[in-house]
Design a protein that fits this description.
Keywords: ATP-binding, Nucleotide-binding, Transport. GO terms for molecular function: ATP binding; ATP hydrolysis activity. About 25% of the residues lie in helices and about 20% in strands. It has about 375 residues and is α/β, with parallel strands linked by helices. It has a single domain, classed as P-loop containing nucleotide triphosphate hydrolases (Rossmann fold, 3-Layer(aba) Sandwich), CATH 3.40.50.300. It has a seven-stranded mixed sheet with strand order 6-7-8-3-9-10-11, sandwiched between helices. A four-stranded antiparallel sheet has the order 2-1-4-5. The longest helix has 18 residues. The two termini are about 15 Å apart. Bound molecules: adenosine-5'-triphosphate (ATP).
């Protein structure tokens, strides 16, 4: 796969952000969806607090994972970043420019730099268009004329994502799920993005295929220096892909840390519970598991204080009255922030290695790669 990565880095319209410098900054970001009643005169009676004041930075070339249970606001965050949704509060800064409420015209120069990969490789590709037309469309729309023409560029991109360049004229139904997701990746790459928001990019795929697509994304991130916001409910997938991981609960980030700190020394009880619920690498490991009681409360009326308190075994009175700030607790590594009044001891480990599939494990072992099926049902 490595030698197929023939793209050069983009000289985009925004000044290049050096690796390690903040590329995307979310500050107090909010999205509240109005809840209305009445058929005719729709009156707002409340709001879904889908994203409720999050701060997050993604540096150039960095892969940041965003995890949490269904409905916690991950996709809404991704859609805000790509400006498919308008924020109701807070700011989104991209390459130093406030794009929170930028108009279509103002967004035009950076549109190409922020791309999205969607969950469902079936509905996200137009079945009536050839693969060539699908991947070439962003270049056509943006008036980009690559050297050698669009067809040549599309064929290069097909090769980059591990597909046969000769299959330029085929239609999406002729490809398997994994191959379709590769087509989606090629489309996202066509404008040489600097940031890709990948919203559950592998959760619709077979487990054996998931590893191959994650591996491809990881190669692109490393070789092309593309920053990723990788959204997933699956902690194992995020672990393999991300340098830093943010855990969301009911519209808030409750913990954020580099990969090792988060997985080995989780301080927030929610992170600990999520890790405890993940499949174990060692089936003979019978350490105590934390079972999360009840469902996630409604984001229309989130609990006061700490939102996790209604399901937390450590909750006390203070948790109902005071919202815990997201801060570096004593015992946390630098950059490890936790929002909890009664955190886990820094010595408590998640207790186990989180591994979803043996194929994924090979990604983390230097020198080993997953065999890439070209042109098979991958
Ligand atoms: N357009 C909308 N109008 C009203 N509520 C919405 C809208 N989009 C999302 N929501 C609500 O916002 C909350 C967060 O949804 P979101 O899809 O961002 O969560 P998620 O963590 O990505 O979950 P999932 O993994 O199930 O997609 C949910 O309660 C959802 O029902």
């Amino acid at each position: 796969m490595n030698d197929q990565l023939t793209l050069s880095k983009a000289d985009g319209p925004s000044p290049a952000t050096p690796a390690g410098e903040p590329l995307l900054q979310l500050s107090g970001l909010e999205k509240h969806f109005p809840v209305t009643d009445g058929l005719l005169f729709k009156r707002q009676v409340g709001a879904v607090h889908a994203v409720d004041g999050i701060d997050l930075t993604v540096s150039a070339g960095e892969a940041v994972g965003l995890v949490g249970e269904s409905g916690c606001g991950k996709s809404t965050t991704g859609r805000l970043v790509t400006r498919l949704l308008e924020p109701t509060g807070g700011t989104i800064t991209y390459a130093g420019q406030d794009i929170s409420h930028a108009s279509r015209k103002d967004l035009a120069p950076i549109r190409s730099e922020i791309q999205m990969i969607f969950q469902d490789p079936y509905s996200s590709l137009n079945p009536r268009q050839t693969v060539g037309a699908i991947i070439g469309a962003p270049m056509e729309i943006n008036g980009i004329k690559p050297a050698g023409g669009i067809q040549k560029r599309v064929q290069e991109l097909l090769e980059t994502v591990g597909l046969n360049p000769e299959h330029y004229n085929r239609f999406p139904h002729e490809f398997s799920g994994g191959q379709r997701q590769r087509i989606g990746v090629a489309r996202a790459l066509s404008l040489e993005p600097k940031l890709i928001v990948a919203d559950e990019p592998v959760s619709a795929l077979d487990v054996s295929i998931q590893a191959q697509v994650v591996n491809l994304l990881q190669q692109l991130q490393k070789d092309l220096g593309i920053a990723f916001l990788f959204i997933a409910h699956d902690l194992a997938i995020v672990r393999h892909f991300s340098q830093r991981v943010a855990v969301m609960y009911l519209g808030k980030i409750v913990e954020i840390a580099d990969r090792a700190s988060l997985y080995e020394r989780p301080r927030h009880p929610y992170t600990h519970a999520l890790l405890s619920a993940a499949p174990e690498a060692d089936p003979d490991d019978h350490r105590e598991r934390i079972r999360l009681a009840g469902d996630v409360p409604s984001p229309i009326n989130p609990p006061s204080g700490c939102r996790f308190r209604t399901r937390c075994w450590k909750a006390q009175e203070k948790c109902a009255t005071e919202e815990p700030p997201l801060v570096r607790l004593s015992g946390n590594q630098e950059g490890h922030l936790t929002a909890c009044h009664f955190p886990e001891e820094p010595t408590i480990t998640s207790g186990k290695e989180v591994v979803l599939d043996p194929a994924l494990a090979t990604i983390e072992v230097p020198g080993t790669t997953i065999p890439e099926p070209r042109d098979t049902q991958g």
